[in-house]
Write a structure and sequence with these properties.
The structure holds three protein chains of three kinds. Chain A is mostly helical. Chain A has helices spanning 2-19, 38-49, 54-62, 64-85, 133-155, 164-181, 184-190, 193-216, 238-266; strands spanning 95-99, 105-108, 121-123. Chain A has a domain at 47-88 and 131-266. Chain A is built from nine helices and three strands, in the order ααααβββααααα. In chain A, 36% of the residues are buried. Chain B has a single domain (2-64, 82-132), classed as Helix Hairpins, CATH 1.10.287.3510. The chains are: A mainly alpha, B mainly alpha, C mainly alpha. Chains in contact: A-B, A-C, B-C. At the A-B interface, helix 1, helix 2, helix 3, helix 4 and helix 9 of A face helix 2 and helix 4 of B.
């Protein structure tokens, strides 16, 4: 199999290398890729949409339809992960708890009973490791700032590099940091599985809702110019506001899906212990 | 032969991108382990994204964020298309990156399920065990 | 754009890619994959694609590496190939 793979790779690579004779020189301003449509985006983009970041302007305004289906693809990946891995296991044995200040271990033998106040106790699993104080303290201080930075990236997508995806992934990464440094169960206590499912669907609904609202107000789908009827913004900036609303929807969907995929992979679908 | 050498020196970047793509393709075909196949798929995807992004570059042009656009003063000046690099490949490749991470998530979920069922991740052992079952 | 940076980082990227698929320990594959993603991000930032570099830094070198490490810990870490 390896020799066959090597032969295929050499033939394919040889054909591609032969095709590079026709490529234009790198960085040539008159290459065919810079004609037809992109000069229009560069010269008219700021004037028509009101966003200096041309990549966000093209992504959320000129090609907003592609971005909507990309959000749907991310949502479907989250649903596929839940459907593949999620199992609900019944508890058959009792559990063991450890009291953190004194170190006393409690063994509860009845599988149905549980503690009322789990704050001072930690559950001893199969892969139990003692949680480190330094990691806990540092991540407890860092996580709010990461989340504020994520909101900044989403809100400033029009003016600086950033946008909905990047901010959503950073927010999801902060929740993954919470699950890694503390416990998977403590992160699921903060934002439950049901809330994650609702948020991911809410992101897609916000995006297509803005599109349908534009259609109901008399224009085409995702024609942000028509939103002046319901938003008190002057017509110069209405397209930037529409882009901001759409990016917020994308941010919600991506954040929820990142956390869904992590909790299902790290706990093999059981949601009982993490890494 | 010197013709080939000048050719390589002029277009060295395309040759290196194609070598990277072929490394990814080789990993997908010839490796036995499923996670290495997945890493090869990701190498292939990012190499193609690299090729597209390199197409959008223009000499002596700056990043595609209009300078001075924040205060509204740039709306009155004319913007030259040759001052800013092409934003269109960047947009298409943003979508490609997000789709690749979604694919990676679903593929890893499938790998965990395969391991739970067959207790191995090597392709030849998997084939034997599937045949036995 | 500075072509020496481009050439050096491209060479490092190719070495990282070859190493990531050749090592026998799957955890090393995951870490090398994270390093490969980060160097791709540097390449794109060098070419002026700042949005794409931002996305790849957060997605590839952040979240994607964590997914692969989590999957390696839940399956097996050794491989014969």
């Amino acid at each position: 199999m390896k020799q066959l793979g090597l032969i295929i790779v050499i033939i394919c690579g040889g054909l591609l290398l032969y095709a590079t004779q026709d490529f234009p020189a790198w960085g040539d301003p008159t290459a065919p890729v810079h004609t037809h449509l992109s000069p229009h985006f560069i010269t008219e983009g700021l004037h028509e949409t009101g966003a200096p970041n041309l990549v966000t302007a093209v992504l959320a305004d000129y090609r907003g339809y592609d971005t909507m289906f990309e959000t749907v693809v991310v949502f479907c990946a989250g649903i596929a992960c839940i459907l593949l891995l999620r199992t609900f296991v019944q508890r058959t044995r009792g559990r063991e708890y450890r009291h953190t200040p004194t170190g006393v271990v409690l063994h509860i033998q009845d599988p149905d009973k549980d503690l009322n106040n789990p704050r001072e106790f930690e559950l001893i699993d199969n892969m139990w490791v003692p949680h480190d104080l330094i990691i806990k303290t540092v991540s407890r201080m860092l996580i709010p700032f990461i989340q504020i930075f994520a909101l900044y990236v989403v809100a400033h997508g029009d003016f600086s590099p950033g946008g909905g995806f990047q901010g959503g992934v950073i927010f999801g990464a902060s929740l993954i940091l919470l699950a890694l440094s503390f416990d998977l169960r403590s992160s699921l206590r903060r934002i439950s599985e049901k809330m994650l499912g609702i948020l991911s669907a809410l992101g897609v609904i916000i995006y297509s809702g803005i599109g349908i609202a534009c259609m109901l107000l008399g224009g085409n789908f995702l024609d942000y110019g028509r939103l002046t009827a319901i938003l008190p913004v002057d017509p110069d900036h209405i397209r930037a506001m529409g882009m901001l609303g759409v990016e917020i929807g994308v941010g919600f969907a991506v954040m929820a899906v990142m956390v869904i995929i992590y909790t299902n992979i790290a706990s093999q679908g059981r949601h009982q212990q993490g890494l | 032969m010197p013709d080939l050498l000048t050719e390589i020196v002029n277009k060295y970047n395309y040759w290196l991108y194609i070598i990277l793509m072929m490394i990814g393709l080789y990993a997908m075909i010839a490796k036995n382990n499923l996670i290495k196949k997945l890493v090869g798929m990701n190498i292939f995807q990012t190499a193609i994204i690299l090729f597209f992004i390199s197409m959008g570059y223009k000499d002596n042009a700056t990043i595609p964020i209009i300078m001075g656009g924040h205060g509204g003063e740039a709306a009155h000046k004319t913007i030259e298309a040759s001052q800013y690099i092409n934003p269109l490949p960047h947009v298409l490749m943003l979508t490609a990156i997000v789709v690749s991470v979604a694919t990676l998530g679903v593929a890893l979920a499938l790998i965990i399920l395969i391991y739970q069922r067959y207790q191995t991740l090597e392709e030849d052992e998997l084939r034997m065990r599937v045949k036995q079952k | 754009m500075h072509w020496p940076i481009d050439l050096i980082i491209l060479t490092l990227v190719i070495f990282c890619a070859i190493a990531a698929i050749s090592v026998k320990d799957l955890l090393s594959t995951a870490i090398l994959f994270g390093a490969y993603s980060f160097m791709m991000c540097l390449l794109w930032a060098n070419m002026g694609a700042v949005d794409v570099a931002f996305t790849e830094a957060s997605v590839g070198a952040g979240v994607s590496s964590v997914f692969v490490i989590a999957a390696v810990f839940r399956t097996t870490r050794r491989t014969k190939d």
